[in-house]
Amino acid sequence: MNEVLLVFLYALFTAVATGFGAIPFAFVREISERVTAYSSAIAGGLMLGASFGLVAEGTVYGRGETLIGALLGVAFILVTQLLLREYDSQDLVFGAATGEGAKKMLLMVIVMTVHSFAEGVAVGVSFGGGVTLGAVITIAIALHNVPEGVAISAVLRPQGVSVARCAGWSVFSSLPQPLMAVPAFLFVETFRTALPYGLGFAAGAMVFMVLVELLPEAYEHGDRAQVATVATLSAVGMVLFQQWL
Amino acid sequence: MTLEPYSEVLLFSSLAAATAVLGIAPEAFGRAPSRAAIGWANALACGLMIGVAYVLLTEGLSGALIAGGLGTLLGVGFVRASHAAAGTGELDVDRLESSGPGDGYKAILVDALHAADEGVAIGVAMAVSMPLGIAMAATLAVHNIPEAMVLSTVLTRRGLSVPRAAVVTVAVNASQVVLAVASFGVLGFVPGALPVVAGFAVGALMYRSLVELLPESYHQAGETSIAVVTLLAMGVVVFLAGVAP
Question: What span, in angstroms and rounded, lies between the C-alpha atoms of A120 and A122?
Fold first, then answer.
């Protein structure tokens, strides 16, 4: 098979895997304030852990570049928040939710989708070393995407979004992976230079989202000690899972 | 001049502990820090701690993931148990202003317990490599200043004189020095324990940051500025740790 098509199909498979992250939420029947709090804590922890992985990879290519990328990621969220504030919050509709809930979901989907661009580049660049290891890398990335789908669903599901739609949005957020993997594979050297900025950007945007939206929400609705426990264990669990892959 | 490794651990952890005295500066100059400034100090301390956890996770586990995970559970469990035993689980600087004199002692106890985990973090980092350990001690030296600023504000508001408050803020860090030397010593004899001890420090530091520092700081200065300060502090640690060979 054509190598480019192979890279695209592998990366598409990793995107689809993100949808599996919605499955645990099929077992959550009642969506109470506590569910919202602990879902936010899980999402926050998983995203913090995922960012640790992105930073560790980015700093291999360039420390300063990763840091600059992270600051740009923060600036991106701040600008997006400002733009969303321009809307009258009641006008904003996302699934069944309106207002503040819709804003948060939209921001979450934007952050996770944007971060997938950097991950797609990382996939493409790592394939640049030859597609022999392709299957192994693909399975690793696909597994890594599942908890990211959990993070997205953890924010969307408590707002009343159906499990199927949670899966849909999770897959959507990963679609930039196959789209970016192919050009990155074809032009490895060019993309390798941009990679630390991209990984830093993704990490900065995700950590900022965790600190400005998810954790405050979790503290507001849940017990502080439980939120801290869930977030800490999710973050460390994600790091250990990624190191294992 | 070269020092014996133990003397180096003692020297650098003592220097880190002693910098706490700088935290008394606002009180000494008769300018009590504003509520927002205390919030930013807490966020700075929190970001540095999460950055330290990142460094320990990427440098300290050396592939022993189950041991690292076990250590994390022990770390979280240790802090939760110590909070339960000391009755300091829901201690809040905001509420301290209107509560009884016993809370002054609780604030001291919280900081002394906090310093213990930080000591373990210094010992672990020194066991990985001396330059990483020195970077860790420098990070914690900076971290001790805002922590001391918050504690000295609490103490002087309870009527303690500025010089006495200064002595207390440094003295609470004694456990940091003792545990830095002790954990470095233990790891010298049992190098295989490194992933467990590193995991312990990660669990304790992250849990403490998320249960004490972050939720308080949100109330004091608002989500956006807290997120920015926390993220910048994390970035500084990642950068500093990368400088260490």
Answer: 5
**Distance, CA of A23 to CA of A166 (rounded, Å):** 9
CB-based contact, A236 to chain B, within 8 Å: yes
- The answer to whether B223 contacts A239, with C-beta atoms less than 8 Å apart, is no
Instruction: For Cα atoms A10, A15, A18, give the angle at the middle one, nearest 5 degrees.
Output: 135
Instruction: Supply the DSSP string of A161-200, one letter for each residue.
Output: --HHHHHHHHHHHHTHHHHHHHHHHHTHHHHHHHHHHHHH
Distances (CA, A) of A204 to A59, A118, A136, B150: 13, 12, 28, 28
CB contact set of A80 (below 8 Å; sequence gap of 6+): A107, A110
Domain ranges of chain A: 3-244
Task: Give ipTM to 2 decimals.
Answer: 0.80
Please, are residues A150 and A46 in contact by the beta-carbon 8 Å criterion?
yes
Rounded to an integer, what distance in angstroms lies between the CA atom of residue A122 and that of residue A116? 10
Q: What is the pTM of this model?
A: 0.79
- By C-alpha distance, the chain A residue nearest B67 is A240
Shortest Cα–Cα distance, A3 to chain B (Å) = 33
pLDDT in tens, B174-188: 888 888 888 888 888
- Inform me whether the C-beta atom of residue A79 falls under 8 Å from chain B C-beta atoms: no
pLDDT tens per residue, range A19-42: 888 888 888 766 677 777 887 888
Q: With left for phi above 0 and alpha for psi between -120 and 50, is residue B219 left, alpha or beta? A: alpha
- CB proximity A62 to B under 8 Å: no
Using one digit for the tens of pLDDT, what is the confidence trace for B67-100?
888 989 998 998 888 777 766 555 554 444 544 5
Which residue of B210, B212, B213, B225 is the best one to mutate when testing the A interface, meaning the one whose CB has the most A CBs within 10 A? B210
Q: Please indicate if any CB of chain B lies within 8 Å of the CB of A100.
A: no
Sign of CA pseudo-dihedral A117, A119, A123, A124: positive
Is there a contact between A184 and A123 (Cβ–Cβ < 8 Å)? yes
- For chain A, say whether B242 makes contact (Cβ under 8 Å): yes
Torsion, Cα B155 B161 B162 B165, to 10 degrees, reads -40
Q: What is the CA radius of gyration of chain A?
A: 17
pLDDT for residue A191 is more than 50: yes
* CA nearest to A171, candidates A28, A14, A44, A6: A14
Write down the domain spans for chain B.
Answer: 5-14+34-243
* Structure confidence at residue B95 (pLDDT): 46
β-partners of residue B5 are none
